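Crash report, auto-generated. Payload:
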Amino acid sequence: MLLKVRKLNKIYHTGKVDFHALHDVDLDIDKGEFTALAGPSGSGKTTLLNLIGCIDSFQSGEVLLDGISLQGKTSNELAHLRREYFGFIFQTYNLMPVLTAYENVELPLKLLKKYSDSEIQDRVMNILKIVGLDGLEKRMPLELSGGQQQRVSIARALVKTPRMVLADEPTANLDSKTGEDIVDLMKEMNEREGVTFVFSTHDKLIMDHAKRIVRMRDGRITES
Amino acid sequence: MKYFFKLAFANIVKARLRTILTFMIITFAIAMFVFFEGLLAGFINLSVDNLIGFETGHFKIRSENYDENSPFVISNFIAGYEELYPVLEEKPYIKGFTERIYFLAEIDNAIDALAVMAVGINPETDYSVFTLSNFIEEGELIEGGALIGKNLADDMNLQIGDWVYLTFRDADGMFNSVETTINGIVNSADPYVNSSTVFITIDEAKTVLNTDSVSEIAIRTDNPHRVKRYGVDLQKSLPDHVNLFDWHYLGADVIAFMETDAMSAYVMVFFIVIIGMVGIVNTMLMSVYEKKREIGMLKALGMTDGEVRGLFVLEGAIIGMFGGLFGIILGSLVNWYFVVNGMDIQAMMGGQTLDIGYRVMGVVKSEWNFPSMIGAFLFCIIASALASLYPASKTVKMQPMECLRVNQ
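Recovered output after restart:
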């Protein structure tokens, strides 16, 4: 089992009001899964993805990655886990605006510090070709369309062949045709590279591409 | 590391306007430092030269009875001073020596009367220790006459050939008054010499004071910076009834005053540099605020807290490095002008002598102080990097998602 989530609770403290975003959530994700987290806004999809990806903290429960508990890990240990395990795709792309498409994609490889310059170049050019961006590698993010930016973001998430890609509403800012293309691309990468995908969506069309759908409501998993 | 540089550069270039503003503050601060430092060094060196050249020489030999609280009394004088000359002549590092007599007097031209310091000098040997002879603007010192400072001459409306009375107490404590002619005008680099000193020949001074003794013997060596070493050797060769003092001791008050003034200038420059550092903190704080999402993304990609902190510190250091470099170039250009042309203090003061503790007047030339420039450059880089630490540390406390949530 790649990921085990047990009795996970997350409470947001906003002023005097506490918001219980996740209630005792249990979830197992196996290697190679292509899983959609479905549910309305505020159901806890994004929160669950953030906690799985170690980019937010939780109050109680347990998250196990390859059997290793995230609890008690230091900030630096979590950073190294993110570096090794995860690729992230965000609804708003979150590309570095000062870097070109190529430089954005090479960033995770530079942080990994285990590839030579020529290996990095081969990997980056290869993934940019796969996501259909060859020829656009020198463009700055602002010179690309929304769909192209999301492709850069996917290339960035996949370039290091992570154990798991976490995608938060990856198609929400795209038109339906581009959105379907993006999900097709993710699915292709899942099938070709065996990369595990967990993505959140409330788009019915996108959900249909998922091999497994986990439904959420009010911070609880209602169907797994 | 190369990639971090690239990222830091990209961030700096992106925030162009803010970077330029910070950069300009640092450039200005360092340029001011380089210029002030050079000018201050020029002031100090010229002051020390003047102090040695007009007042102290490298050494002075005084009687063991010398009373510093009453420096002009005749009981301070060295009797039989000429017996010391063979000792001085055999020291290879002594390049010249001369005797002088100092006493207080009143100069009177029947219209005005002013208190002055009268100095009896030996025209044959005085030039070998002091620089007075280089600054005689008109005339010369001859027996029966006097040299006076230019400002004193202007104040009393005296010209060459005019008569004045000098009144003083002689060796017997009696008031004595002599009539003397103005034979020369001194326009020196020492404001005290210019405004309140009268020079007569030492023979005449001995005659009018009714003494065979002198106040002191002044000595010039081959190197003013070796006086400590030379002093040890020379003191051993001198008899017990005299003491030896070097120019550090003799000019201690003036040197202390100069150092205090220099410190004030450094404090001012320090505050200018602090303003530059505040500019960097401000730039970096705004940068952190603006780039919260990017920081969140970098953290999500696996950048550690130390690496994020390092990125901001690197940005600060790069701004500091270029700001410092341009500051040194700009400061050097300004300093170069004043090294070549100098600053005419007298012209700036409307022809008056500057008397602020620095014994300078006329044109002060800046000097180059390369170790200080290198120090300022390194300080700029380190201080800029340190100024970035606080904003950078703010990013470290944030969870990646806290950063990414901004404006989402």
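Post-recovery validation: Chain B touches chain A through 28 residues (CB under 8 Å).
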